[in-house]
Amino acid sequence: MQSLVCHLDMDAFFVSVEELFDPSLRGKPVVVGGKRDQRGVVAAASYAARKFGVHSAMPLRTAALLCPQAVFVEGHTDRYREYSKKVYGVLQRFSPLVEMASIDEAYLDLSGTERLFGPPLRVAHLLHEAVRAETSLRCSLGLSSSRLVAKVSSDQAKPNGVLYVVPGCEAAFLAPLAIRKIPGVGKKTEESLQKIGIRYVGDLARLDERFLADRFGKWGLALAGKARGQDAGGWFDSPIGENDDPKSISHENTFPDDIADRERLETALLRLSEMVAKRLREHHLYSRTIQLKLRYEDFSTITRASSLDHATQLDREIAGAIIKLFRQAWDGKTPIRLLGVHAGSLRTVEGQMSLLDEPQTERLRQAFRSVDHIRGRFGEASISLAKTLGSGIREKVHENPFDLPGESAREKGKRSE
DNA sequence: TCTGGGGTCCTAGGACCC
DNA sequence: TCTGGGGTCCTAGGACCC
Questions:
Q1: What is the bridge-based pairing of β-strands A30-32 and A71-73?
Q2: Which residue of A142, A206, A255, A401 sits 20 to 30 Å from the alpha carbon of A384, by its own alpha carbon?
C-alpha cells in the first residue's frame, strides 16, 4: 500500500490565538514573546509585522527597532495548549495515527483512508475545513509519501494552503529548493554545504553518498537520503503516533539583570528544582541524571551533570545535587545571566527496578555476553568452559549479587547453563 | 541587533568491564 | 595462555527545531 503522510502546520499560531481573544489586533503588526524592552526573543510575529523584517527568534529589542508601531504581547501559553488540544481532537477523527510534533504542528498517517475520505487532496480539504470550522484558525497542509516531504510541502503551502506531492515526484519537488528548507539543515550545515558549492537540494541529491558520509559522517548519509525525499535516519524514521514519554525535563530562567549574589542564585536553583520535580511527578517519571546549566554575562555557557545512585522525583534530592554542582562550578564572582535545571535518564515507575538493582542487571547482561563471546570464540565444544564460568557467576551471586530479585532458582539455573 | 525556553539527537573521550 | 577488541556508561558540548 502506498503510504500517505500529512503534515499540518498552524498559520502564525500564537498570533492567531491572540487575535481570537482580542480582535482589535487583527491586521496589525503583532509580536508575541514579551515586552519591547525585555531580554528575550520573538516567539511569533503577525504577517503585518513580518513585512518589517521581524521574525521568530529575533531579539525583542531588535524587533522594536525594526517595527516601533508593533503591539508587543507576552503571550498565553495555556490558551495555546488549549487550542492545540482542539486541533488534535479534529485530527483524531481522520486517523488514529496522529502525532503532535510541537504545539502547532502534527503528523497524520493517512495511508489506506482513501475508501473513507476519498483521494489525498479531498481528505486534505476536509481536514482543512474541519480545523477552520472548529477552531476558527487557519493552517497549512502538506501531503506526501514521506514525513520529510510532507513537512516541506506544508511550508511551501503557507499560508492557508494545501499541497500534495504525488508519489514519484518527491525528488523533483525538492530539487529547486534552498538546502535550508530541509528540516535539520540549519545555519552551520548550510554554511559548510555552501563552502563546497551546494546551494539547492538538487545539488545535494547529485552528490555521491560516500562523499557525504566521509565528510559529515552519519549525518551526511541521512542528508543524502533527505535530498531524495526519504525519511532516512533519525527522528523522521520513527512511525507516526508513537506517543512515547519525554526523554528529559528541564526548566531554565534568564534573569532581567545578571546576578552575582550567591543567595539569590541558590534560591533560584531551588525554585527551578521544585518545578522540575513537580513535572517529573506529573509524568510519573524518575530521573537519575541531574544537570546544571550556567550562562555567564558574556553568554558563554557551561553544563555540569551528576548521576545519582538511584532515580528520583523528589525536590530535596534534585535540589541537593544541583546545589552541590553549582558550588563546584561557580567561582562566586562572575555575574550570571541564566540558570537551568535539567533531569535526564528518565524512567517510569513501572519500569523501575528497586533502587540498587539496575546497575547489577547490566552487569548480569555483561556476564552472559561474555559467556556468549567465549562460545563464539571456542565453539560449542567449549560448553564445559561455559558451565564452569556459569557456576562462577552463581558463586559471585553472594559476594557481589548478580541475581535479579524475584527470579526463581530454576530460571537462574537455566540462565547460567 | 544582543541573543527565551523547552526539547531532541549526535559526537567524542575516558572509565570500566569482560 | 596471552592479548586485545568492543560494548556501555558518563560527561560536556553543539546543532537544530518550534
A1: parallel
A2: A401
CB contact at 8 A, A270 and A309: no
pTM for this model (two decimals): 0.82
* Nucleic strand C near CB of residue A324 (< 7 Å): no
Assign domain A178-227 to a CATH class.
mainly alpha
A178-227 shares its CATH topology with A249-416: no
Indicate the burial class of A210 (C-beta count within 10 angstroms; 0-12, 13-18, 19 or more): exposed
Domain range summary for chain A, segments of one domain joined by +: 178-227, 249-416
Q: How many CB atoms lie within 10 A of CB A205?
A: 19
Using the structure, give the distance in angstroms from the CA atom of A199 to the C1' atom of B7, rounded to a whole number. 29
List the grid coordinates of A217. Answer: 559522517
Distance A289 CA to C10 C1' (A): 10
pLDDT in tens, A41-71: 999 999 999 999 999 999 999 999 999 999 9
Distance (Å, rounded) from C-alpha A218 to C-alpha A202?
Answer: 20
Beta bridge partners of A100: A106
Residue type, A119: P
Architecture of the domain made up of A249-416: 2-Layer Sandwich (3.30)
Establish whether the CB of A403 is closer than 7 Å to any nucleic acid atom in strand C: no
Residue A243: predicted pLDDT: 65
